[in-house]
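ok so for the tutorial part 2 we go from a plain amino acid sequence to predicted structure tokens. step 1 is just haveing the sequence, like this:
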Amino acid sequence: MKKRFLKASALLLTLSVGASLGVVSNAATSNGKDGMLKQQVRDKEASFKTAKDGAQFNFQQDETQSSLKSQDALRGKPLSSANTSSVRTATKENDEGSTPEDLSSYVVTLDGDGKLVSDNSVEKALNNATEDVNNYATSLEDSKVQTFSKTYKASKNVVIVLDPGHDAVHGGTSAGGVPEAEINLDIALACRDELSQYSGVTVYMTRTTSACPHPGTTSGNDNYYRVQYAKSVGATAYVALHCNMSSNPNSNGAEVYYPNNGGNAAIGAAGYKLATLTLDELTKLGIRNAGVHTRNSETNTRYADGSLADYYGVIKQSKLCGFPGIIIEHGFQSNAYDMNNFLRTKSGRKRLGIADATGIARAYGLTKGLTYKGLDYKPVFDSQYYAQHNPDVAKALGTGEGALFNHFINYGMNERRQACANFDVKSYMNQYVDLRNCYGKDYQKYYAHYIQYGKGEGRKGTGCTTRQGKVTKYNGVDYSLVYDYDYYQSHNSDIKAAFGNDDISTIAHFVNNGMREGRQAKDTFDVKAYKNANNDLRLAYDDDMQKYYMHYIKYGKNEGRKTVNCDTVTYVTSYQGVDYSKVYDYTYYVEHNSDVKATFKGDDVKTLRHFIDYGMREGRQAKDNFDVKSYKNANRDLRVAYKNDLSKYYMHYINYGYREGRTTTNCPEILKPITQYNGVDYSLVYDYDYYITHNNDVKNAFGGDDIKVLEHFINYGMNEGRQAKETFNVQTYKNNYGDLRAAYGNDNKKYYMHYINYGYRENRKGA
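step 2 — the prediction. this is what the tokens look like for a chain of 767 residues:
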């Protein structure tokens, strides 16, 4: 019997989940899957240990520990958790439940018929086993992954990545001279070809030949890069295609592994659906249903949310990339039924691939033919025409109808490619301005319109090379009241140079830029004139030019508002429902307040706001017949009520004073100065004119403001003994009355208050 020896280091480092070599064991297992090298490879993948800075192998370098780990590996125990105390201890922890003899009696070999035999130890081979696995993270945040639901919903097209497990470098199982890698590739090619007959799906393959897709890599990194490739093409799902093998010739059937719910439950649910439907199609062929399964990490590796990670690397990495990954085991090469009916022949593999494709199609609701989103595209698509007139597409995808149709749906329509002799989307756009008004540059809608309505209406699909009519609508709004294509282009040379005869781009510029810039786009509407003529709009919209156009479209036209020939502004005098015209005139305000004129440069709205927010508080005069200082001086009752809150004087005149005929100008002196404060009348001891005449410091500080002068007298003058009226001198009053001196001492203010409250009535002398 001719034997073919497998390198143990390569074997144990094969991370492809589909590696399916078996291991001979002297003890039978309860489930019949004794000594599977498939299990060995899976457990090898589970030996990754997550550390803070990434997962890494937990290999020890001394030969004793390597030997024990070798034993554990062949027993199906993860390398990173090997117990180094004794061979017997390790044996007890064997996942398969068997009790192998000394490891030195085992070496993996295959005879010419693919049968397994055992020979020498693989210890030395394991000593050379190393792996760089810094790429293997378990953090959803670190990978910046989107949830599966978001990824799928954002995609217009289902993207399936088929991964034929193994290759010429990283071999899998083998039986009867047929390598697993060859079987996997044939199944994948058949699956791809079948899926190409469906609409709305794009298929990628990690390899299409026996060659390794990532030369020079270990099997672990090769698998990692295969998943990363799937991510790079926007995969909706990753499907790894494999075969099983066992030393038990009765082990048979197809099984599928799918992601657990850890880290992202939506991906787990999507993977379960995909796995279940795919296996359902396989069992229809007559292969035994071996079930769908998840498998959790056996080294306590966890996702960022704390849940147990998936055991198999391709499933785990797919989840981290944001899509479900499944592993389909298509039967056992070690089983005569599976081999003879499905795996050995090309026809059997093709049936498996077609079944896989059918299950995938069911999972994502794919349909065959030229139907997409419920529309039959036959009126606008012919595969032979598309291939002939789009040689770049045919060169890349071949001439298969499904592949060409998928390209047309996903790219061709947006690129305005012609796909049949009797429909040219460019011509259809040119011919019908009503469609351009509705659809703009959403090219797919023109194809759909022709299919649903245009053909039945007798519309022409070809033969129009120039634009008929001009677009006036954009995003459902008709701009014809303020926009004319020819006027806009002829009066804006930069627009004509930029967009030429493209009426869709021209109106898009007007809506998105021209209105904001105040450009005139029609001879009967000048936005500057419209703004000048309508002060209520200026008050509402200020410099938001776009709103003036929209107001005219919605209201101004029906209201008969003026739209042209208005260079003179009708100045705003009202703001927030208040008419300030009795105290405010724009021209007077800017001519007598040069700082305001320089700041607002003719903007009457901002000028009025300045007057309201600042000018009134500052006492600025804004009209020739209203001077707030005169109004304050002339109206003692207002000074009592409002004191120095100047804004209230303006508002009083607007609301009451105008009707009452109050004096508003030519009153430079205070009439009837205030003598009352906080309910006390100080007129017996205080006279405004006397106080400022005999106290220059007070006059200099507060002259002209009778309220502040009175406040000074009350808060400081009385305490200081200042005389504020000719008929009362506090020092004289104090000297004349010993009873008061005995009562008040030197508290001068109390003498003033005594005279006001008692002394005057008692006829006491105040001076």
